[in-house]
């Protein structure tokens, strides 16, 4: 029988988890990593929720699959039959959703999302009336829903189980999980590129509290997988959508935005407990799964399989990965190409090269930067970063004569990719369509209720 596929995914975690060297209370995830394969250089196709997940789950870039922005703001896939769930159903898998999905409608409305996407079963716990800061408890409830489902699954079909967590999305919980140590802002350090001020430390403490809820939920699910005999019969994937929900991470083409955790366990692999340093894109997960379970790949896939990496030590990876932004809460068309050494970023809205403040989630960290000149901050139309010498991506060398040939080569790589995948930005700007909810780019508050703060159809 084909292997089951268990897809576990957090919200807004990037690589800021303990298996990647951060002091984050994710001991259960780290224990799993010792018996799985960790990809050190994995990247999403778009550093915003729905585009990222849709890229992984269709094997196509957002500008190709139609998910230009957030599903709860009116964006949709061109064809939900291209979703991994429906592809696996066609190949005799039973498909199950527990918790968050972000490819159809509101990520909180699990019933409607499961129906639109096409899941066979929605086993999510009730979350009616729960405020955002309490949704980490929904994650924990869903962990026990998964546990119960695994205990009772008796069908002959292999299954695809998506367990999606709200953690580590905002709003953060007031307290961490009871099984974890208390988190004190006096003794933590926010990750780069964040300032280390007290306000931001307190904000980051909230992220750590949320991560503690994820880890306890993950522990419940992993124990249930093992106790019910599914551990050696399942491909287990842990990942997230994009960087953390702080300024200069989420909705940014810096590595702090596009860098993601990716930890996979493939039964009988020679790579348990080992790491891969080669470049990997989440768009490659779909074709990889096809190879791992022995199913012919559909023609629409744009990713490259890395299934062979589970057979022997192979750290080569891709030559380059591509990421993009179209919409988050406001319009910010941008594209990037990254090799092991270089990152090239191009912003297409030449008339607005300030920071899109609505594309930064509201937080006390955002308030801190707003009070210290965020409105005046600029971004370049084009940027090149030498990641070996400038891993924080603060020194734009696009005009430096020593990098002239690199700039030309990176521009060519990006254009070749865009041409091959029919990127619509090459023929002009996107226009707002019926049903899309788009903040004006010069505004601050993505949660505004003022109709005048939003673009009209055709703008």
Description:
Strand 3, helix 5 (110-117) and strand 4 form a beta-alpha-beta unit. It is globular and about 60 Å long. Helix 1 packs across helix 7 (198-227) and helix 6 (135-152) runs parallel beside helix 7 (198-227). The chain has 459 residues and is α/β, with parallel strands linked by helices. It has two domains: 4-310, Alkaline Phosphatase, subunit A; 321-430, Arylsulfatase, C-terminal domain, CATH 3.30.1120.10. The chain is built from eleven helices and 13 strands. The strands form two sheets. Strands 1, 2, 3, 4, 5, 6, 7, 8 and 9 form a nine-stranded mixed β-sheet that branches.
Please work out how many helical segments DSSP would assign: 11
Which CATH first-tier class of the largest domain would you pick?
Alpha Beta
The CATH homology group name of the largest domain: Alkaline Phosphatase, subunit A
What is the count of distinct domains?
Answer: 2
**Gyration radius over CA:** 21 Å
The global form is: globular
Fold-level CATH name of the largest domain: Alkaline Phosphatase, subunit A
Task: Provide mean pLDDT, rounded.
Answer: 96
Number of strands: 13
Share of β-strand residues = 15-25%
Keywords:
single chain, four-stranded antiparallel β-sheet, nine-stranded mixed β-sheet, Arylsulfatase, C-terminal domain, alpha/beta, 13 strands, Alkaline Phosphatase, subunit A
């Amino acid at each position: 029988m084909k292997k089951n596929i268990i897809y576990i995914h957090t919200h807004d975690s990037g690589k800021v988890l303990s298996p990647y060297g951060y002091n984050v209370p994710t001991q259960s995830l780290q224990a799993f990593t010792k018996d799985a394969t960790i990809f050190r250089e994995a990247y999403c196709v778009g550093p915003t929720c729905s585009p990222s997940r849709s890229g992984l789950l269709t094997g196509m870039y957002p500008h190709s699959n139609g998910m230009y922005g957030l599903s709860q703001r009116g964006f949709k896939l061109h064809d939900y039959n291209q979703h991994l769930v429906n592809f696996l159903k066609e190949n005799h898998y039973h498909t199950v959703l527990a918790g968050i999905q972000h490819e159809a409608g509101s990520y909180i409305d699990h019933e409607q999302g499961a129906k639109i996407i096409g899941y066979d079963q929605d086993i999510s716990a009730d979350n009616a009336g729960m405020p955002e800061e309490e949704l980490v408890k929904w994650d924990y409830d869903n962990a026990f829903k998964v546990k119960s489902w695994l205990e009772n699954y008796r069908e002959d079909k292999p299954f695809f189980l998506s367990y999606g967590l709200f953690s580590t999305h905002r709003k953060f919980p007031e307290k961490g999980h009871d099984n974890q140590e208390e988190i004190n802002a006096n003794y933590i350090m926010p990750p780069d590129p964040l300032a280390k001020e007290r306000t931001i430390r307190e904000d980051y403490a909230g992220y750590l509290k949320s991560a503690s809820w994820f880890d306890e939920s993950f522990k419940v699910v992993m124990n249930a997988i093992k106790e019910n005999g599914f551990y050696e019969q399942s491909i287990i994937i842990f990942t997230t959508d994009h960087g953390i929900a702080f300024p200069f991470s989420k909705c940014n083409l810096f590595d702090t935005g596009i860098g993601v955790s990716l930890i996979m366990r493939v039964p009988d692999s020679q790579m348990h407990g080992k790491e891969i340093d080669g470049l990997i894109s989440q768009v490659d997960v779909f074709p990889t799964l096809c190879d791992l379970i022995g199913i012919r790949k559909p023609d629409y896939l744009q990713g490259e399989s890395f299934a062979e990496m589970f057979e022997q030590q192979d750290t080569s990876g891709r030559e380059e990965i591509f990421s993009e932004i179209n919409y988050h809460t406001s319009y910010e068309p941008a594209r990037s190409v990254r090799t092991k050494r270089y990152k090239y970023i191009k912003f297409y809205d030449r008339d607005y090269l300030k920071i899109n403040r609505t594309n930064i989630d509201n937080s006390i960290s955002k308030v801190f930067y707003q009070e210290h000149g965020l409105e005046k901050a600029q971004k370049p139309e084009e940027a090149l970063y030498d990641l070996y010498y400038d891993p924080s991506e603060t020194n734009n060398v696009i005009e430096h004569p020593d990098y002239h040939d690199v700039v030309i080569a990176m521009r060519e790589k990006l254009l070749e990719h865009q041409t091959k995948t029919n990127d619509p930005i090459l023929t002009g700007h996107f226009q707002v369509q019926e049903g899309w909810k788009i903040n004006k780019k010069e505004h601050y508050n993505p949660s505004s209720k003022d109709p005048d703060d939003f673009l009209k159809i055709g703008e």
